[in-house]
What we know:
By secondary structure, this protein is mainly α. Helices cover 78% and strands 0% of the residues.
Amino acid sequence: MTPSTRNAAQRRADQIRIFRQELEQLAAEGVLPLSVAQRQDIALHHETLLAELSQSFDIDRDARSRQLSWGMRIASFLGALALAASVFFLFRQFWGMFSETVQVGILIVASLVTFGVTMLVRSRDATGYFTKLSAMVAFACFVLNIAMIGQIFNITPSDQALIPWAVYALLLAYLCDLRLLLAAGLICLMAFLAARVGTWSGVYWIHFGERPENFLPAALAVFAVPQIVRHVRYEQFPAVFRLVGLLSFFLPVLILSHWGRGSYLGWSASTVESIYQLAGFLFSALTIWLGLRRQWTETANTGVVFFVIFLYTKFYDWWWELMPKYLFFLILGLTALLVLMVMKRLRGTGDANAETMP
């Protein structure tokens, strides 16, 4: 079957590259000797398939192309940030020279033009690098549009501005298959939900960050989205949902494990901190287990990172003032070795289970 997405096409090309390497190794070991005609037929089939995939999806055909692709991703990201900053400072430099009517017109036209340019680039850019660059500029113009129109008409700042930002970022993300804008949209959406939760408890919306627990419901909701909504055409999007959700969950838990006064719970600060420290260990271990069970690499890695962070911070609370510094860091190093041994054991168990699966 012909792959329908660039990610699927890239996986197919990687399979061909690995197959060629293994075939050469088997031939050198005399395990699978093939005739010249057979080798030519296989090579011709692969070259034809790679040519079709390259024409349709602009895939990386070899290791050198993959390395260059990483450089192009970094360049497109930095270029997008630079152009977005350029647009911001351009507006700031000459903004006072225009009347209010002209200012509003410029803002609206800038958003429409950048969106149109993004769609035009998307239709002609098979690599996606230039699409990412133009989409980031379009999103920056839209954010600037909402913010500056509010200043022009002296509108009271509101958390509702986060809604159009989130919708626009998600629209560009799904139109252009861009994970970066998907993360930006999810962050805006979670910030709005956290602000809403904060206002329900009597906190002014702009101070919603003073209550880290405001982020927990939104984080759980974002993490659950890929399990409810399937992303057939966007294979890499579920990982972004899970990663953003996990980070938005564990960071508040980490903060509250050392700052109990920021909690809604009515207990003493030390009790709240102990509860969240225990919750951090339990949920990070559960995250590791879930990631390994479902084969979600980003989930398992995030769980490991936060489990180690919670463990190290607890060590700091216990022993930093009591132990000599060399002994403290020695214990940290030995703990890291223990974690490596456990992870190695888990990896070995996972490999054995995979081999026994039919």
